[in-house]
Design a protein that fits this description.
With about 550 residues, this protein is of the alpha+beta class. It is built from 12 helices and 30 strands. Strands 3-2-1-13-14-15 form a 6-stranded antiparallel β-sheet.
């Protein structure tokens, strides 16, 4: 059986994406912003010919499957770089972009799936004078825009597309094999991009980092957001990272639109939903439950548009509000289901622990194997969609202090459901021993691990973040792992789905992790140097 799929990334410049002095050419009509690409993938060549997008990255892959095993695979596609038209009075000058060679690493072949990756991009059309950090400190070159997309094909015919990494400018849209818009880059940083897009900071020289990615909204909210975006009839507000949206109050007759950045919606102080550019906040149509229980916090620095409601179609606002209410209700239903299952799981788990303690005077190590197969099937989907995870310690007589994970939100009196998350002892027969033990859980620790020990987090009521889950996976491994394998292990061992982009950002910014080569990360216990992949950072 042959299975095929396609992933496409379109890159374009949204209105107001360029600010300050850099926006002068756009305001004078010399350069132009782009219209938002449609919800369904159009002809790429037509978009490039019309100067409607800046470049495209398209990957087509196939696999041959026999008896559930992949026996052959292949891929095709590549980057498509457009041109930039500059208008001076009545004349237009067109500058063609300069494409860099596509980067196509060997596919990652695993049991039952194959993952294909492709990086495409190049120098944009118009040379730009810009400051650089090395002599002669100024360059007149076109900066480099690029994207890395990944496509995973499964032996069951399933396919998953993702933006694995991308430049910080412009905006990147991802379309799946059916041509549907599914994800977008959430953060644009033009100043950082224009000053730091030298080739040595791109994948062509071993550089490049992931960007935050967010799922697209419903069709009604997306259509309304695009209408607002291209109208330009709004004022802008900035919201710093960590600030609450209510710190930028607006009148009941006004509407907020998120132009750039990520916002986290918290329900009863528990992280619930994450939204990106295109999210609309209308005080007049906000449900009562949301007003009483929900807060909105900036996960990254954000830019917001504010405009009057009477400038917008009232029916479009109602349709958008209906989609938002549907997402909120779905989250609440899933949360209630998780809490109900958690209570049942807690009773069964306690019984299993009590039986083991009564039957063995040696106090055997608690493992997930104690759970029956039906119990594992109950717990497997339980964590799906849960956004907050607490750690607790179990003390049963002389039982050692185990580190346990609570499934589901732990606020509002929700009983914790323990599943073992023991911090594994480091092997001292390898490259080096550890530097000490944690004062709270007695686990061996490496540099920077004491202040962020998961048990320490629990003591202060903090949440387990994505990096903590990755630390647990690496402690259970004898070697460094790829980000993709860490993601798979988190899902397999803990039942938690995290995006690879979010995981990459969390790991690369956390000093507990040690760089072990391109795409590989480990811990100090694996014999690696902590502190990042640059020697200066490591020192």
């Amino acid at each position: 059986m042959r299975y095929e799929a396609t992933a496409t990334c379109l890159s374009w410049i949204p209105p107001t994406a360029v600010e300050g002095v850099f926006s002068l050419p756009f305001g004078l009509g010399v350069a132009h912003f782009d219209q938002p690409p449609p919800d369904h993938l159009p002809e790429i060549e037509a978009l490039l010919s019309a100067d409607a997008i800046r470049f495209a990255n398209q990957l087509h892959a196939w696999i041959e499957v026999q008896d559930g095993q992949v026996i052959a695979h292949g891929m095709s596609g590549g980057g498509h770089l457009g041109s930039t038209t500059v208008r001076l009075r009545s004349r237009g000058l067109t500058f063609a972009g300069v494409a860099l060679p596509d980067l196509i690493p060997p596919p990652e072949v695993h049991a039952g799936r194959v993952r294909f990756t492709q990086t495409a991009g190049g120098h944009t059309g118009v040379p730009v004078p810009r400051a650089v950090s090395r002599p002669p400190f100024w360059q007149l070159t076109a900066p480099i825009a690029w994207s890395t997309i990944a496509l995973t094909l499964g032996a069951d015919g399933s396919s998953t597309a993702e933006i694995a990494a991308a430049s910080r400018f412009p905006r990147h849209y991802l379309y799946d094999g059916a041509g549907r818009l599914t994800h977008k880059s959430a953060v644009i940083r033009y100043k950082d991009w224009i000053r730091g897009s030298a080739q040595h900071e791109t994948p062509w020289e071993g550089g490049g980092e992931p960007v935050p990615i967010t799922a697209v909204k419903g069709p009604a909210e997306r259509s309304l957001a695009d209408t607002i975006l291209v109208s330009g009839e709004y004022r802008q507000q900035d919201l710093p990272e960590g600030a609450l949206l209510r710190e930028r109050p607006i009148a009941d007759t006004e509407v907020h639109l998120l132009l750039d950045g990520l916002l986290l919606i918290e329900i009863d102080q528990e992280p619930a939903l994450e939204v990106g550019p295109g999210a609309i906040f209308d005080p007049a149509t906000r449900p009562r439950y949301s007003k009483e229980h929900a807060t909105v916090r900036a996960r990254t620095p954000c830019r917001l548009a504010v405009l009057r409601r009477d400038q917008l179609d009232s029916q479009a606002l109602l349709d958008s509000a209906a989609e938002q209410a549907s997402r909120l209700n779905a989250y609440l239903e899933n949360r209630d289901r998780r809490q109900s299952l958690a209570e049942q799981a807690e009773v069964e788990q306690d019984r299993a622990i009590d039986r083991a303690l009564s039957e063995s005077p040696e106090l055997p190590e608690i493992t997930q194997e104690w759970l029956s197969r039906p119990m594992q099937q109950v717990l497997k989907p339980l964590a799906g969609g849960a956004s907050g995870f607490h750690l607790h310690r179990l003390r049963r007589g002389s039982l050692p202090p185990w580190t346990l994970r609570t499934i589901g939100p732990g606020a509002c009196g929700t009983p914790p459901t323990p599943i073992r998350l023991v911090r594994r002892a480091a092997s001292t027969d390898g490259h080096r021993g550890m530097i000490g033990t944690c004062d709270h859980c007695n686990a061996q620790r490496g540099p920077w691990e004491d202040a962020v020990c998961p048990v320490m987090r629990t003591k202060h009521g903090w949440f387990l973040d994505t990096a903590d889950l990755a630390v647990h996976v690496l402690e259970e491994s004898d070697t460094a792992l790829t980000v993709y394998d860490i993601k798979r292990s988190i899902r397999r061992d803990l039942g938690i789905d995290v995006s690879q982009e979010t995981l990459q950002v969390s790991i690369s910014g956390d000093r507990r992790f040690c760089w072990a080569g391109k795409g590989l990360y480990g811990l100090y216990r694996h014999g690696l140097i902590p502190g990042g992949k640059l020697p200066m950072a490591a020192s």
